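Need tokens for this chain, all 432 residues.
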Amino acid sequence: MKYQRPKGTADILPSDAQKWAAIENRAREVFKKYRYQEMRTPMFESFDVFSRTSGETSDIVTKEMYDFYDKGERHITLRPEGTAGIVRAYVENKLYGPEVPKPFKTFYMGPMFRYERPQSGRLRQFHQIGVEAFGADSAALDVEVISLAMALLNSVGLHSLKLSLNTLGDNDSRQKYRQALIDFLEPHEAELSEDSKERLHKNPLRVLDSKDANDQKIVADAPSILDYLTPEAFKHFELVKRYLDALHIPYEIDSNMVRGLDYYNHTIFEVMSDSKAFGGKWTTICAGGRYNGLVEQLGGPETPGVGFGLGVERLLLVLDAEGIELNEQHDLDVYVVGIGEQADVEALKLVQSLRQQGFSAERDYLNKKPKGQFKAASKANAAYTLTIGQEELEQQKANLKNMRDGHQESVALPKIYANFDQARAILDEKEN
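Here are the structure tokens for all 432 residues:
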């Protein structure tokens, strides 16, 4: 029987895992500057956590969730996105309490799951990096989250980006716009796709997000939510634009953008790339917005929130297509060459000592001859080799060689065990 990975998943092999680690490390560095702390939540949650928050007419709930009943007959869902689980944890652990600083800023990294047709940059198990900030209904916090997204993408070398911006307003704005949209769409009901017909009266904003080509033609002339904003919602959006202008972050208004989840309100945004990875077509790699009301939906007190999620697979596709290397692979510091059975134990002790001193070290485990070990050291791009055989063992010395220029010296073993940094400094000084 031939065993293969499940459809829509990928094996992240060591050479690729280094790129993943580099992105995650950059993200942690950037998030630390903005004072966002990590949070880790389960990969599966109660079905209601997502069905209640994502919207009953969203594609995620109606088509894409991996849900099942466990042995205790509990309805369980593999998380399709990161925000709802973070909100559930925020409420359950009472992170809204008076002793917790406001706003509460957190980030997450990990796999998500959606049952959809696999394609480039879109898998059934995919990975997101995201941030959430709770407790402040401030346009300045919206812009901090946007600037954080841009800073993260800039930190990995991406600069040809487009920020698309919109607002979904407050509840009053949405209710007025909802009716206006229904009034516009009803004369076209027969022409709409089956999904859009079903959504027309349940959640007409979902029609704006339809991928059906004919639906897109129809909604091209739909009214804009910007014409239905309450004074408060208008003021919030104007402040967002003013802050973005102050930070010199360019943006484009897209009044038809609604995002794929129902919990969003006020500011929403997408950061897009026109990389050749997607044929030069603008494609979203990071998106988010404000979601006031979501905490209350999951049983918490009235708490505003805002955040974003970034698709790691898509980001990697862009980096590869643009030829951007996040080279955080560290070459091998020292390869210990052991010659003969008597030196085997000492070679093991040297490797362990070097590692404990903070160096990367390796040795042979395949009984290779000295020539084979030196080849292995060269292939691993080792900076130095330490060679020890019976003669060196008797003299309590090892032969230290700089692999870049071939210079070598005999160094006392006690010096290596005490401080390899000083030992190699002796070699480098004699070389100079």
